[in-house]
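Can't paste images in this forum, so I'm doing it all in text. The chain is below; anyone willing to post the predicted structure tokens underneath?
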Amino acid sequence: MIFLAAAPLLVLPTVQSQPAPAASPGSKVTSAGSASGILLSGPSSVTPSFGPLPSVVHQPSKSTPQEQMPFLPKPGLPKAAKSSKVAGPVTIPPVVSCPSSSCDTVSTSAGGATTQPVALNAFDSGTSYNIDIEPADQGLCEGNGYVMEVNNIGEIQLFNSTTLATKGYVTLDNLMGLPSIPTSMGGPWSSGGDPSCLYDQDNGGHWFVTEIVSNSSWANVGPFGGCFAAKVEGCFEGIAVSKTNNPTGSYWVYFLDPNNVNSDPGKENLLNDFAKIGNTRDAFLLFYDEFNLLCPPTCPSGFGQFGFNGAQEFAFNKNAFEQGLSTSSPFFNVAYENMGNNKALYPIPVNKPFQPPPAASCFKGKYAGAVCWYQVIPAQSPGPSSYDNSYGGTGYMVGSLDFLGAGDNRLAVFYWAGLSDLTSSGCSTCSGITFGHQLFTNLEAYRDEGAACPASGGGFCGLGEQEAGTVPLGDHCALFVYGVTNLTCSESGIASNGDGVTQVSYAQHQIWTSVSTLITQQYTVPAPSETPASTPSETHLGAAYWVVNATPFDSSATFTLTGQGYVSAMHEDLEFPAIAAGASGFKAIMTFTLNGPDYFPSTAFGEFTATSNGLSPTTIHIADQGLAPQDGFTEYQGYPSPSDFPATRPRWGDYSWAIYDPTLNEVFFATNYIQSAACSNFVSNPTCGGTRDPTANWGTSVNYITP
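Text version of the structure:
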């Protein structure tokens, strides 16, 4: 293994690759066949009612603030065990010299970006659903002259691709027809969050929108009641597909039932968390992390078991969705891979004392629920020219490996091959579909456990600092959050949520991805001649990224590393990095939220190439500068009850997005930031004139730039 010091160099990784068979690589998938077993009968035909943004002043009661989901910790060992184990001879956290190619300056210039600083925000969400929500769980897609932004708890805003002017608003309840679900199916249902979207250019162009759907009405059991109260058959994954390339037209709507997919622990009470989507020429790719909501008390035996069942990967016949075929159609096929019980894919930790026995799985044994694949994210391609059609159609996914929270220096690239077989009648040739992976080691190290303490302290902490400012909810949180009068709340930080992968892009025959990581910035400070020079250091949140070359895979079924780098803002923090790469010869864009002692949470980005080993130029541009601190209820309350105060678990964003449009040659990107300044009359006007909601002030921006 290679030690990565202050100025990280491009190093040759060690690759553990599978043998390359002459035909399609990989192993047979867990299952492949008709999608009717996991999709409810359908589809439904829904014509959403796009209209103007909500404008009714909304003041929810003190009891309405809700997190997007209960705290489901990243699988891992207890903190005491983690603290004494480091994953191999790597520097944790990684170190960069400042200034350098991996320690970037911050500019308040927009860097040529066209911006829409007032996209969706907490007021829109709160007005539509009469509830405040954190985090925003943002998604972004673009095509055919439209930009679509999706946000928690379930809302969509459309923009013009050129001017970024607004072109319509609708709730996901409305787009998916949830209030009108027939009672014979258990309706009405309600939005449950974690939305994603994708524009696919094939077959004339179609929009895909997904989200968790709660099999219950809010009127009966309240928000998320069906999913998170462990109701039998309580959670579905809604999949809406536009009938044309016009996102304001009609949609085919399908529902995936995670309880019909497998017989994992907690069957009938499974949660399809954090779903992300991708596309190939032949397939619509969908992933989610599976949780057993009956755990505790009915957890499988094993050390570190939190009810986590592992990553679940699906590849559907894309044409079936886009043609609105019935789920009973012989052409509506799906390949499925349960990564929680596939021993061939089981990740081996770096530290030999933690190596699981050969028969280990996510469901039993010493490492049950601890060393398991999670957040294995499918790649999105910007257009048909970017698809990899080798081996009868190939799709890619990426996962990081810091399962134990101690840091790591490995990356896994997964692939489907033979995906064109999904189009065969009755899945008659689906035996040719395979699934495999390649593990890279000795890469740049990364570590971010995401715990709710300042990242400046290192360790397991993962909260970025934010500039001090006025926090009216914090000043009055006793009234607005808890309904009591004897509690003082102070500002907390911006959450990173750990070092799992959140977005993957496939372009230029390269796979691009990034993760959050703590980074130690070392500054060389000139000292008086009579004393040695000193090297002060600061620990901040930054990003590690990798670019993996898929060209050799087409002939030899192996990947190579093209480039890697760190992105770290001098003296500042950044969260939720996302990358989009365009046509060959153009730079890629990384976007993220930037904040720190000198900045409120802001939308920022930088440019780089596959081989630049960091941003090039080494400048981070602020596209939309934040105007106040994050002042939402999760900054102040210890979830799930005030008795946990002052231990907070702030929620922020949960993902940024960057996508490339090959027709316009533009990269569109979006993040969470704070749109509006704090007001002085918060108690009498807790929406501050419609710029925030009483218990949340997050906002989003939508932007584009020519790379």
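The longest strand covers residues 510-523. The chain has one domain: 14-705.
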